[in-house]
Amino acid sequence: MKSDQPRSEKKEDYSSTRFYTAFALLAFFSCRGLDYIASKKGERSYVFSAAAPKTEIPEAPVSLAVDIVLGEILYMRDATYEAEYQLYIMKRAAELAPYERMKKNLILEMRK
Fold it and tell me: DSSP letter string over 2-67?
């Protein structure tokens, strides 16, 4: 026999679901905020890496650059660019050659 009493409707408790959703959103925005702060400080950033300040790589001294350019080429992407860059480095070395000689002469004179 079936009872004539209506089934009590089971109310679902959404409070835990809301809590987990709010906690997940809080964690997400906290991570984004910390990542933004790190990018502003110049530290490693994952989301805001494009906004991070760029650091310049200093060029090698001309004497070292000439030695590198005159060495063996292991890989080149563009032969024209490679040739132009070699000429650029050699031109800079030629411009600075008299000063390099003067510097060497002064160092040798100081040792006497």
Answer: ---SPPPPPPP--HHHHHHHHHHHHHHHHHHHHHHHHHHHTS--SSSGGGSPP-PPPPPPHHHHHH
* CB-CB contact of 65 with 89 (8 Å): yes
Residue whose C-alpha is closest to residue 44's, from 87, 13, 36: 36
For residues 79 and 9, which has the higher predicted lDDT (pLDDT)?
Answer: 79
Q: Please, what is the angle between helix 62-70 and helix 79-111, to 10°?
A: 130
pTM metric for this prediction: 0.45
**Exposure string for 21-33, b = 16+ CB within 10 A, e = fewer:** eeeeeeeeeeeee
- Alpha-carbon gap, residue 24 to 100, rounded angstroms: 64
